[in-house]
Amino acid sequence: MRILMVCLGNICRSPMADGWLRHKTKQHGLNLEVDSAGTANYHVGKKPDHRMRRLSLDFGVSIDELRARQFSVADFDNYDIIFAMDQNNEQNILQLARNNKEKEKVKLLLNELHPNQNLEVPDPYYGTDANFKEVIELLDHATDAFLFNHQLITKQ
Ligand code: 4NP
Q1: How many domains does the chain have?
Q2: What pTM was computed for the model?
Q3: Is residue 156 assigned to a domain?
Q4: Mutate to test the pocket of ligand 1, among 5, 6, 8 (most ligand atoms within 8 A of CB)
Q5: pLDDT of 22
Q6: CA spacing 20 to 30 A to 144: which of 15, 19, 32, 125?
């Protein structure tokens, strides 16, 4: 299965979601292909935000090798599930979809953890280390819920 994590800048939330899923793919020996992208192009080519890179290491996950890229229509061909971090991202991705099959690939990540609630991963960019840490923990739980829901792990 091919999974794409998407946020606005691709420097905070989606690289961390990507990092967790790559980490768990390796840890559990899963057959997942994982990447991330941003709906905006502000940070293309940059490493993830320095706060996310530093704090992710406290959780045993390195995201230093990731580089921001912008979501493109070709991602609908290359991924099976496209997880948006918030409803704005979701709408921006849906606007690029060419048909219903592509639209069906787009989901809110937190619906894995809290089905049908359409909750959003808060944007930590203008926040504190504590906000970044909360996002890292939320993304840990959400990626576990995704793996559990798809029967790729047996407990969360
Ligand atoms: P992200 O956070 O979407 O989680 O990567 C943001 C990063 C940068 C900006 C906004 C959100 N920005 O406005 O530059």
Answers
A1: 1
A2: 0.98
A3: no
A4: 8
A5: 98
A6: 125
The rounded distance, in Å, linking the Cα atoms of 145 and 92 is: 25
- What single string gives the DSSP state of each residue in 60-87? T---TT----B--TTHHHH-SEEEESSH
Atom of ligand 1 nearest to the CA of 135: 4
- The reported pLDDT for the residue numbered 110 is 98
The CATH number that applies at residue 20 is: 3.40.50.2300
Candidate of 5, 10, 12, 67 to mutate for ligand 1, largest count of ligand atoms within 8 Å of Cβ: 12
Using alpha carbons, select from 34, 23, 6, 22 the residue that is nearest to residue 123: 6
Residue 155 lies in a domain: no
Q: Ligand 1: residues whose CB is within 6 Å? A: 7-13, 38, 42, 123, 125
Q: Say if residues 66 and 34 touch (Cβ distance below 8 Å).
A: no
For residues 44-74, one letter each, b for 16 or more C-beta atoms within 10 angstroms of the residue's C-beta and e for the rest, the string is eeebbbebbbebbeebebebeebebbbbeee
Please name the residue whose Cα sits nearest to atom 7 of ligand 1: 9
In a domain, 47, yes or no: yes
Check residue 156 and give its pLDDT: 79
